[in-house]
Amino acid sequence: MRLMTELRRVACGMAMLCAGMGIAHAQEFSGRVVNVIINFSVGGPTDLEGRIFADNLPRFLKGVSSVVVRNVTGAGGLIGVNQLGDVSETNKLNIGFFTWDPMQQILHHPNLRVQFNDFKFIAGMEQTNLLYVRRDTAPGIAKPADIAKVNPFRAAVLSNGSDWSALRQSLALDLLGAKYRTITGYKGTREAEVAMLQGDIQLVSNSLPGYNSFAKNSLVGRGLAIPLFQFARGDGNRSPNLPDVPTFMELYREIHGANANPGGAKWEALQYLNRISRMARVIFMPPNAPDAAVAELRSAVERMSKDPQFMAQYEKAALAPAHFVLGADGERVIGELKTSPPGMETFFNQYIESNASH
Q1: Per residue in 167-202, pLDDT tens?
Q2: Where in the sequence of the chain do the CATH 3.40.190.150 domains occur?
Q3: For residue 35, what are the CA distances in angstroms to 57, 59, 76, 148?
Q4: Which pTM was predicted?
Q5: CA gap 56, 214 in Å, rounded
Q6: Reported CATH class of domain 30-127+277-345
C-alpha cells in the first residue's frame, strides 16, 4: 500500500512537472502583441494570404494577446525583409510572411542587408506556376508543342527580368527551342495579362492562384490562349489542380523525342531555380528569435496546415489550396542558398546580360 501511494505521488509530481514545462513552452508568446510583417502592399496576393495566416494564428498560438499585421513595402519586398532582419530585443518575436526572391541573395542585391538563410525558418507555402500563350501567335498554336514552331513572339516578365520567375521562364523557353523576345517592365502579372488580352504580348507566366483569378476565364476560357506547361511540383508530378496541363519535362519530350533529356548549363540552372523557388511564400522569424519561440510557432503552423477551417478559408480567398512545406523539407530549400553549384552566380549574371542585349 505504501509503495502504491509513493508511486502515485511520484506520478502526480511528474505530471505537474510536465504540465509546468508545457506552460513555460507556451508562454513564449503568452500575453504578447505579435507583429506579422508582410512585405508587399495591402490588397495584393501576399497581403491576402498573409492576413488569413495572421487571422487564424491566435487559434494555434495559445496565449498571444493579439496579432497585428504590418505591411512594410518597397524595393521589391526587401524593405520588409530587412526590417525582420534587424536584430534587437524588441523584435525577436516578430514574424515575417513574405513573397521572396532567392535570386536577390544569389546575385548579391545591394539593398538586401540580411541573408535569407540567417532567418529562423518556420514554414513555406508551395504554389504551382504555369505559362500560357495566345493561340494566334503566328502562324498559330493548336497545342503546346507548337511553341517550338511559331515565329518569334513577345514574352512578358516583371521588373527588369532578373527575378527567379523571369529567369525560369526564359531558361525553359530556351530549352524548348522557342524563339521569343523578353519584354520587361511590367509591374504585376495583371498588367501583363491585360497587355496579353490586347495582343501586345503573347506569353505570360503566373502562379495558379493568379491564373485562376483572371486568365483561366478571361484568356483561356474565351479561347484566346492555352496553357503551355506547368513547372512540376516538388514530387515531379502535375498539380491535381491542373491535371490537363503538361509539365515542362512532358512538353520537352513531346517536342524533342520521348526519350530526350535536357542538358547543359541552362538545364542545370533551371533545375537549381526549380529547387530554390519551390516555396512562393515563406514564414520566417528574426535571426535572434529564441529557439523555444521558433519551436512553438513551427508547431502552431503545422497544426494550422491540418486545420479544415483555415484550409477552406485560404482556398476560398486564394483560389487554390494551401500546400505547406514544413520542417526538414523546407530547410533543404533554404539550405540550397548556401550550397549553390560552383559557377552558378557567374552563369546567371552572364545570362541576364545576354538577355538584356537581345
Answers
A1: 999 999 999 999 999 999 898 899 999 999 999 999
A2: 30-127+277-345
A3: 11, 16, 21, 49
A4: 0.88
A5: 27
A6: alpha beta
